[in-house]
Amino acid sequence: MAPSRREVRAFVEQVKKEIAEKASRPTRVRRARLPKEEIFPAMVCFVDLLGFGTKVKEIASSVDLYSTRDELRVVHDLFLKDPKGLLERESAKSLAREVWAFSDCLVIVIPLRSQAVEEEGTLGVIVSELNDLSLAHADCMGKGILLRGGVSFGLWFRQGDFMISPALVEAHDVEQEVSLPVIGLAPRLKDLLVRAARRTRDPRYLSSFPKIKTKRGFCRFLDYCGDLLAELPGDMGPEGRAEYKRTRDEKKRRAIFERGVHRQFRKWLRWHRNTILNRAQQAGDGPVRRKYEWLKAYHNRHVKRCGKEFRPFRIGTLSDRPGPIGGRVIR
Questions:
Q1: Could you give the CA distance from residue 280 to residue 48 in angstroms, rounded to a whole number?
Q2: Which residues pair with 41 in a beta bridge?
Q3: Residue 260 confidence (pLDDT) above 90
Q4: pLDDT value of position 330
């Protein structure tokens, strides 16, 4: 039997009354739980991949997108976000290093409150990490990738999607101030190294970072070419290794080892030369040519330091015929 109009009206009034009572009750607002915050001292490096922004702007298909991502991943991995070697992996684990990639730039964060800091001290970790950044820069140059950046240290705050860091701002300021393809040291970092050199009476804390002119004065930078040449292992090859094992004469062993080191020197200097010439000739004339003239002089200075036998790797002019770009030197 169907309900009467009176019963339907009474039901509707009852529902309205219940809704009104529910709306009048005080409701408990459930707030979203904020992610755990992290505040710690860190060394922060900001790196701009020169010419990469234009490539990102020209992405017109998924093929372009994934090709650009793969190129960015190469640089990302060279800065040890995902190191392949066991020693590098252990080092990254103890330092809890992080590398963030954003379109045409990288942010590298090295906490200064890690196991490595306890073992080596803050200054030891900073100097060691500056060397690693310099070697990563050299590896990028070997692959034909030019960088410009800045590095500083200070507060790092992170909470969920929020990152606040005076050190990051300072590193970015240095990158903007330096017009050449180098990674510059922020004034705060330079002052720390000056104090270390005075306290320890070891000028190498500062002298290993050459000086360049910037828009407002001078800046110390990571000498990636010098750092790499100082750390290259010998590549003796199968025949050299066999000869090294056979002989017991220390002079002969030393000579075999030096031949292997020189072989690596030639490989790296050839790649560095070809990178500079290829990129300079792609860029053509204009204001940008100044940075390639500086790179030519920087390259030739290190060729001269290596000795007379490396003269064939000098750059005469930027119109010299370039060869193929190499890759990463194993270190």
A1: 18
A2: 155
A3: no
A4: 43
Alpha helices in 102-186 (DSSP H): 115-120, 122-142, 166-177
**264 lies in which domain range?**
232-313
Is residue 229 over pLDDT 90?
Answer: no
> What does the block give as tokens for 310?
């490396």
Q: Phi and psi (nearest 5°) for 37? A: -95, 150
Among candidate residues 182, 206, 228, the one where a domain is terminated: 228
Measured between alpha carbons, how far is 236 from 80 in angstroms, rounded to an integer? 26
Quick check: 199 pLDDT over 90?
Answer: no
Q: Nearest CA to 45 among 114, 141, 158, 132? A: 132
Q: What is the pLDDT of residue 307?
A: 83
The count of domains in the chain is 2
Taking the C-alpha atoms of residue 323 and residue 278, their distance in angstroms, rounded to an integer, is 8
Among 76-85, 164-173, 238-247, top mean pLDDT goes to 164-173
Count the residues in the chain.
Answer: 331
| Range 274-278, long-range pairs (CB < 8 A, 24+ positions) | 274/144, 274/322, 274/323, 274/324, 274/325, 274/326, 275/141, 275/142, 275/143, 275/144, 275/146, 275/325, 276/315, 276/318, 277/315, 277/318, 277/320, 277/321, 277/322, 278/144, 278/322, 278/325
d(CA 88, CA 99): 14
Q: Percent of the chain at pLDDT above 70?
A: 76
Higher-confidence residue: 121 or 87?
121
The span from the CA of 292 to the CA of 271, in Å, is: 15
Q: Does the predicted model carry a pTM greater than 0.85?
A: no
Question: What interhelical angle do 237-246 and 250-283 show, nearest 10?
Answer: 160
**Do residue 79 and residue 220 come from a single domain?**
yes
